[in-house]
Every structure is written in C-alpha cells, then in structure tokens.
Specification:
mainly beta, Immunoglobulin-like, 2 domains, five-stranded mixed β-sheet, 10 strands
C-alpha cells in the first residue's frame, strides 16, 4: 500500500472515530510524484450521561401493577429476580395506607390506599431481600439480586 493511501485511510478512520481533522485538510506524501488530498468531514459528538441519585418513588395511574396488597395479603409473584446493577422496577398497590419496607436496603416506601407506587432503585447489593408491609410485618415478596 502506498503511503498516501495509508495516510488517507488513517484520516478516514480518525474521522469515523470522532477525532475529525479541520475541514479542507490536505495530506501530502513524501513519495516522489504522488500527492493525496482528503477533505475532512466535520463531525459533532454528543454524550448522554444518566445519573441516578437516591431512591425514586413514582406514582402514575397508568402503571401496570406487579403486586396488589388486599387485606394484608399480597397477590403477585413471590420473587422478583435482578442482576447486580439492574434497576429494580416493581409497581405495588395496597387497599390501605401503609409502609413498604425493603430489608437489606433499608428502604421505606409510603403506600396510599388504591394509589400505585413504583419501587425504583439500583440493585447494588447481592442477596435475597424480604419486602414487607409494616402493619403486621406481613411478607409481601422477595427481591433476589445475583451477580
């Protein structure tokens, strides 16, 4: 491969990787009698950064309910499984005002009668964690985090 072709290939690769050279750059080889020109393509690069801080509880009427608590009894899956680093996303309703406690994470979520809430946090501790309602300390479900 001629040096001019190699230089052009390197510049095209640099542009594709976001390291664009200034527009209208001319590359010249030192090989006698050969010259190569390449106009660099200007590029823009943007970065999206998502940050999760603390624990979020969202309430929306359109959430599909994963677990319903009625008369102190939970209806839904017994275990929700996640990989380490996943976001836990479980929507719960209750027929009475109460508190939902996630053991091991020491998280408490307020339950308002007939209003769905979503448990939303990062599963950053491996293990099996019991979730219970405070009134009567009734077991609702477990969260299993593996990794």
């Amino acid at each position: 491969m001629k040096t001019g072709s190699l230089l052009a290939a390197v510049l095209v690769l640099a542009v594709a990787c976001g390291d664009a050279a200034p527009a209208a750059t001319t590359a010249t080889t030192t090989e006698p009698g050969t010259t190569s020109s390449l106009a660099a393509i200007p590029t823009t690069t943007s970065t999206v950064v998502t940050t999760t801080v603390g624990v979020e509880t969202t309430t929306t009427a359109t959430d599909a309910v994963d677990v319903a608590i009625a008369g102190g009894v939970a209806f839904g899956p017994a275990v929700f499984s996640y990989d380490l680093g996943d976001t836990v996303d479980i929507t719960v309703t209750s027929d009475v005002d109460d508190e939902l406690h996630v053991h091991g994470y020491d998280l408490v979520f307020a339950l308002t009668a007939d209003v769905p809430i979503t448990l939303d946090f990062v599963a950053d501790i491996p293990g099996v964690f019991e979730v219970e309602i405070h009134t009567g300390h009734s077991h609702v479900f477990d969260i299993e985090v593996s990794g």
